[in-house]
Amino acid sequence: MNMITVKSPREIKLMRDACRLTAGARSVGRRMVAPGVTTGEIDRAIHDYIVKAGAKPSFLGYNGFPGSACVSVNDEVIHGIPGARKVREGDIVSIDVGAFIGGFNGDCAGTYPAGEVSEGSRLLIEATRQAFFEGIRFAKVGYRVSDISHAIQEYVEHRGFSLVREYVGHGVGRNLHEGPEIPNFGTPGHGARLVKGMTLAIEPMVIAGRREIRVLDNDWTVVTIDGSFSAHYENTVLITDGEPEILTAAEDM
Predict the structure, then answer these.
(1) Taking CA 164 as the corner, what is the angle to CA 207 and CA 240, rounded to the nearest 5 degrees?
(2) C-alpha 177 chain-centroid distance
(3) 85-139, pLDDT tens digit by residue?
(4) CATH number of 9-246
(5) 237 and 244 in contact (C-beta within 8 Å)?
């Protein structure tokens, strides 16, 4: 993990541009989630949207990743490789996307239902999204990273879900992954102290069943060990001298 960077006003403006585009790309993917679409079709639409704007997909080629977006279905937690898989009625689809423009990256994700989904899946998606908002109540000057982590853990586990521990949120800026690491669990009062100008990708990854995971033979896709469904929700957040600003905000986020 790289060092923590604090952005200047000029850099924050460039971050806003990158994050606005990234949020738009997530919205493109969200609107495509429906029975019959392939994960590859979602990926191509996201790729075209980013490139048409004069930007680059942050994920494409990152450590060899072959897609412009991670498209993860059902028990796939993160890093789903888009391809020929068809989305089916009742699936839940996680879309994680980044865009690079003006020297900076945005990063965001969300999990969306394909048609009618089970009550359990709906509650999982809602809890994962709300966990993010519980966490950013502490994304303010003077708090520490683990204050965010603890709030996410308390909310999720109180609702009977599990949290992924092997993968974490992170700083984001000129590099897709910067410091600090932001786990989704932990005791409060630990880690880096938050200061104005930090830009953080905060991303609960929540599992309906056991928290154990494994990586498929493709060396990318992370799945739940027990086959239970998983959801993912992420935004890039700016630490200000007041309330946090969600840089990847969108009407349908």
Answers:
(1) 110
(2) 12
(3) 999 999 999 999 999 999 999 999 999 999 999 999 999 999 999 999 999 999 9
(4) 3.90.230.10
(5) yes
- 8-state DSSP, 192: P
Every domain of the chain and the residues it spans: 9-246
For 105, the 3-state DSSP assignment is strand
- CA of residue 11 relative to chain centroid, distance: 22
Instruction: Record the tokens describing residue 46, joined without a space.
Output: 């996201």
Provide the whole-model pTM: 0.96
Secondary element (H or E) of residue 47: helix 39-52
Q: Which stretches does DSSP call E strand in 39-159?
A: 56-57, 69-73, 76-78, 92-101, 104-113
Which secondary structure element, helix H or strand E, spans residue 201, and what is its range?
strand 199-202
Peptide bond into 57 cis (omega under 30): no
